[in-house]
Amino acid sequence: MDLDDILALAETRPSPLEFARARRVARAAQGQYDLALAEGYEIMVDADLVDPLTWDVDEATRVARAAQLAKSGTVTWVAGGRDGLGRLSWSDEMAMIFGHAPGTLRLTPETLFGLVHPVDAGRVRAAVRTAWTRCRPGEVDFRVVQPGGSIRHVHCHLEITTCEGEPSGIVVTGEDVTALELARQERRRLAIRSRMLGADLAVLDALTGLPNRGYVIDEVDRARRTTGGVLVVVATEPATRLPDALTDTDRDRLTAAVAQLLRTVVGPGVTAGLVGSGLWGVLLAPADDRAEAAESLAARIVETFRNHLFGVRQNTLRLTTSAGVVRFGSGVPATGFDLLVDGEHAARDARRDTAAVVVLDEPVADAERTARCRSRVRHAVSANRFALYAQPIVDLSLHQVTRHEILLRVRSDTGEPVAPVAFLDMAERVGEILMVDKWVVDHALAFIGRGAQTSHYQVNISGKSLADPGLLTFVTEAIDRHGVKPERLTFEITETALIENRNEALAFARGIRAAGCHLALDDFGTGYGALAHLKYLPVDLVKIDGTFIVDLCRSPADQAVVSKLVELCQTLGIRVAAEYVQDDATVERLKSYGVDFAQGYWTGRPEPITVSRDEVQSVELELRFPPRHTALG
């Protein structure tokens, strides 16, 4: 039985027996009421005792009385009248809900609906029409616009009065539910936010599951601001050069095995992460009993790693391992990055001196640290300790490879090419990234110039290098020197948050465009000023950062961000590429959003540039090695 059935049953005329029973109940209730008054009890309920079956009283009056008791307002419309428009009135409570003092507004249907929010007016009219047509109660929620412009949320019940079975009027009972509506909206927002909020995948290395370089640096910074502590940096490198037959998958497995062994040695509850290619950081706080024995822990890690046999392609491999220990107190001026560099240098010193561990009782002086970092970068550039790898990029509209990205790798002491994340981070912080950029531009354009140049080529430049006023001249001269067609070339700015001089960046962008080249932005969606750059930089392409792509099919938040970024770029006339694409499901979703290009393990892993130049249809050159899935290669 539903509400309509109950109302239909209630309209049925009771039998004489039912009338008699009702009178007995009424007399009993009246007796109890009189007895309570005689005994001096105060009646707290403001209600008139009436026969429950006397329906023939004014229904509108009854509803208005109930609304007044519930501190609600009413609007009453009675059909008929000389003009045929009927009689419309509202209670003082309802007038105040609509923001008007009682008796100050002459109420007509037009003025009443004029107070309803324009977006909701049609829905309110439809609800009234439905209740009148069906002669059944209804309800509706809507907003009212008060004279001062304030918006209030109102919930109303609609009741139809009848006369001889025909509708004769409408009584609307309403209450201000603004507080309830705002609370409901907040609950809904929190539920959506909880569903959208996922784990910060950017803090973990996807392969090892350990915290990455940025996370470890942040934790060291927090420790130096509060308690101080000890940082242990472990440097690992294959004792012999890895066979050329090894794939990236083999290297990934080796990295994962090293991470697992490190977790076993340091135990739970200790911050231990991957801070570079073959570099591992372990942070010990003073409250940790092992902080006093940090040197012993470092020696144990080194000994364990040196004695462990790692399996690679059914072969065994040993690691050359050394460690640096840096002690620091609270409030030291050295940053977390500085302390990490000090630990890495200490580990290098230990390896050079054939020692297991080198301990620094305090951070190195700034001048000494900077000089050593600059020396490392300059030596790497002068000695050509770099290698270029190519990764294919697929045009999703054509479903074929039309581009390649050239990735920079740094050669280790054994000649093994490794990811340059830590090296480039150091070069940027000590102001030597420009010479690395120039090396890559020169060698990359030389490679492109020897090819067929049948498609488009992209060369990335660090945002910090744009502050150099001579960069544009160097690039344009390199284009001419190597015979690269400018219309086939795009320069991609990496790390847009690091742009130090907006004017120089804009001058470089305009100069490149004037020369016939295009402009692109990398790591889109992560830089603090990425959206602002789209306003003044003549950008033709953006690459959405891979942190939004790797979990795209499972993350509603990533889906919302990517779809809106693509929509924004399409509105601005900018093409879009996605990094870290790894499976068909991600590709199909990217296509549905309108993404133009896809890059990642789905398109192919990076390969050394050893093929004939004519086989490369398009090359995209970048200074950063984007996949965070590998560490030793």
From TrEMBL:
UniProt domain EAL: residue ranges: 370-620
The record's annotation in Gene3D superfamilies points to: 3.30.70.270, EAL domain, PAS domain
Which InterPro entries does the record associate with it?
Answer: Cyclic-di-GMP_PDE-like, EAL_dom, EAL_sf, GGDEF_dom, Nucleotide_cyclase, PAS-like_dom_sf, PAS_fold_3, Rev_trsase/Diguanyl_cyclase
Q: Which PROSITE patterns match?
A: EAL (PS50883)
GO terms assigned for molecular function: cyclic-guanylate-specific phosphodiesterase activity
Residues annotated as signal peptide: none
**Cross-referenced PANTHER family:** CYCLIC DI-GMP PHOSPHODIESTERASE PDEB (PTHR33121:SF23), CYCLIC DI-GMP PHOSPHODIESTERASE PDEF (PTHR33121)
Name of this protein? EAL domain, c-di-GMP-specific phosphodiesterase class I (Or its enzymatically inactive variant)
Organism of this sequence: Micromonospora carbonacea
